[in-house]
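I'll show a typical protein example:
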Amino acid sequence: MGRARRILYDGAIYHVMARGNRRTKIFLDDFDRLRFLEILGEAQQRYAVRWRSFVLMTSHYHAAAQTRVGNLSEVMQYVNSQFARSWNRRRRTRDHLFGERFVSKPIEDDRYAITALKYITWNPVEAGYVKHPDDWVWSSHRATAGLAAAPEFLDLDWLQGFFGGRTMAEAQDEYRKSMAERLTVAGSEDYLNTIVIGSEGFQEAIRKQIGITMHDLIIPRSYRSLARPSLADLFARCGDDLEDRNRAIRRAQVVYGYRQSDIARSLNLHPNTVSKIVSRLARQRFFLVRVN
C-alpha cells in the first residue's frame, strides 16, 4: 500500500515533529544539535522555507514552518535525511535514525499559530528539562523573545505584524507576555488530538480540497473526517432513490472517512452489502475513466 498523501498548499504554516526510531535519542550532544541547526539553515536556503520556531528535545524535535510553495515533504525529507546521514557518518553506523514519518499539522493563520508556538516553546518544561522556556538554549524561544541572537534561518518578520509595536523590541516584549503561561493540560491534549489547527471554516475548506482533488488517493482517515456532516444528514438528502443512496454510501466512506460498519449500522444494512455497493461504484467509475 502506498503512503498517505499530505495536505500541501502554497503559503501554508505547519507544526512539524519527527521522532527517533523506537523513541531513541537523536540528539546525544551539542555537536548533533549544532549540526541540525545548520541543516535547518541549508533547507531554508534550498527550499525557501520559513522556520518560525523550533525546539530540539532528546528523542525528537518540533518546528513551525511556512512554505511559500507546497513543498513541505521535500523540506522535511531533506532535513531528516541529511541529519541521519551526518549522525551515522559520525558514529560509523547505518541505523534508521527516525522512526515513523514526520507529523505535520496545517495551521490556518497567525491567530492559531500562537497555540502551536506556545506548545513548542513550553515542550522542554513539560518534559522536565528546565523550569522555564528562557532556560532552554536549544529552542527558538530565546531569540524570538530578544534574549539571544537569532540564527540567520529563523524568521522573525511576522512578529511585528502580529504583536504590533513600533519596534521589534516592543513586539518581542508582547511575545514574551503571550508566552508567559503554558497551555493547560486539557488544552495540550486537545491540541495533540487536533490534526488541523484553525476554525471550522478552515477545516471545511481542507475537507473540500480532499473531496475534490484527493478522493481516490490514500490519505489519513482523520483528514477525511474534518468538518463532516452526520450520516443521518448525508442520507436524509437521498430520499427514496436507491442510486442516490448508493452514491451517498460511497461519498460517506471516500470523502468523509466513515467506516463501512458505521454506514451499515446507520442504514440497517449488513457491512458486506455496503462493501459491495462501494466496490461496484468504484468499478463503474474506473470503467468510465478508461472509456473516456
Observations:
- The longest strand covers residues 49-56.
- Confidence is low (pLDDT under 50) at residues 214-219, 286-292.
- The domain at 228-291 is CATH 1.10.10 (Arc Repressor Mutant, subunit A).
- The longest helix spans residues 271-291.
